[in-house]
Structures are given as structure tokens and as C-alpha cells.
Structure to design on (222 residues):
């Protein structure tokens, strides 16, 4: 999905002053229902549902990985962590909005713990690559976690430390994942309708695997 739109493949984060201006409202409609799970993309969701925003490269494959986890209520592809309000996909791909391709994950923490969700996140991409994932190069492909609760933030810190230890032993470098609260990162902007559950609609579509092969420690690991 590393298409060339304008100044795509930028590997330097744009500043707020240089970012595209964006717009006060989106230019497109977003579907209301998840095509696989049949749940609302924007809510309302059952009481107790938690929301975590995860960026791990191309959001097509990332969303599919996440909607398959037991306990996930819904997922949605979007843009987060940037400066331009209501960006389009083409604008995000220039690197001039500051956003990264992000998946909103709404989940039941009684069925899928914060820690288990984050373990899956770390294991399913390479969080050491900076502004890229494999051949997808640019700030829009950077690894990021945007939390909505203190409990999630604590789980990010603990799982990151554990995974870094395993990565180091396997010969990988330092984790470069951007970690912030959702409030610090700014709004999650839903991507265009054709991006939502893209690999359900296009089962043979682009879906690279960027996992390192390193696993997070689990209880009973020896």
C-alpha cells in the first residue's frame, strides 16, 4: 500500500506549521456497521467496552488481525496522531498531515485483557522500524499506541519493557513506537468507506506480514 501521492514516503515528521490545513468536516460518508462483526463502527457499544487505538503499518492487514481476536466488539480504520483535521487518504499518504494509519479497537476487557491485546499488537509488526513497516515507508506507517485509560497506559509500559527485552535478545534494535494518550494524540478520524474491513471486501488484497517472530512473555513461560 505504499502508493506515491505527492510527497509520499516522507521519513521526517511534518511540523504543525507546515501541515496541510485539512477541513472542518469530512468529505465522505463512513459505513455504520462492521461488515464482519455486524457491530456499530461508531458505537454505542455495550457498557464496559474499552477503546484502544493501534497503529502497526498498513491498516488493512492490521484491522483484520485485530477484528479476529475473541472479545473484540468492533474495529475501524482511520487516521490519528496528526495535525490536519478530517484528512483524506491521499493527503495522509503525502506525509503532510502527520497522521499514522490507525485501527480503533473497541473490546470487552473481561474477555480480552489490555495486556493480551497489547501482546498481540507487539507481536504482529516490527515496532523497531521507525517511519516504516517493511516496504511501506513514511510517517503514516509508524508504529503507535494511543490509550484511553490509565490501565491501558500501564499495560503498554509493562508489555513494551517485556517485549524490548525479548527483541534485544533476538538481535533487534530499540522500540520506536509512539506512545501517547488519545487526548494527546488528537482525534481519531475514520477512513473512507472502502478502507473499512478492506480485506473482508477484498480477500486477496495487499496484506504484508511484518512480524518479527519474537513473542511476548506469558505467565508460565520458562
Amino acid at each position: 500500500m505504499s502508493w506515491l501521492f505527492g510527497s509520499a514516503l516522507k521519513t521526517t515528521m511534518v511540523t504543525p506549521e507546515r501541515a496541510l490545513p485539512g477541513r472542518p468536516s469530512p468529505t465522505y460518508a463512513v459505513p455504520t456497521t462492521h461488515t464482519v462483526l455486524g457491530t456499530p463502527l461508531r458505537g454505542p457499544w455495550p457498557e464496559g467496552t474499552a477503546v484502544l487505538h493501534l497503529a502497526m503499518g498498513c491498516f488493512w492487514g492490521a484491522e483484520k488481525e485485530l477484528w479476529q481476536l475473541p472479545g473484540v466488539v468492533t474495529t475501524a480504520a482511520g487516521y490519528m496522531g496528526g495535525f490536519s483535521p478530517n484528512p483524506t487518504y491521499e493527503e495522509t499518504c503525502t506525509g503532510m498531515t502527520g497522521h499514522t494509519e490507525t485501527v480503533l479497537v473497541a473490546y470487552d476487557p473481561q474477555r480480552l485483557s489490555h495486556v493480551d491485546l497489547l501482546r498481540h499488537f507487539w507481536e504482529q509488526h516490527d515496532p523497531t522500524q521507525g517511519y516504516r513497516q517493511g516496504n511501506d515507508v513514511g510517517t503514516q506507517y509508524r508504529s503507535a499506541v494511543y490509550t484511553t485509560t490509565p490501565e491501558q497506559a500501564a499495560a503498554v509500559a509493562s508489555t513494551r519493557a517485556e517485549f524490548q527485552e525479548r527483541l534485544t535478545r533476538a538481535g533487534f534494535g530499540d522500540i520506536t513506537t509512539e506512545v501517547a494518550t488519545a487526548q494527546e494524540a488528537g482525534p481519531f478520524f475514520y477512513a473512507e468507506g472502502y478502507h473499512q474491513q478492506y480485506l473482508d471486501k477484498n480477500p486477496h488484497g495487499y496484506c504484508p506480514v511484518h512480524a518479527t517472530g519474537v513473542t511476548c512473555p506469558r505467565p508460565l513461560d520458562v
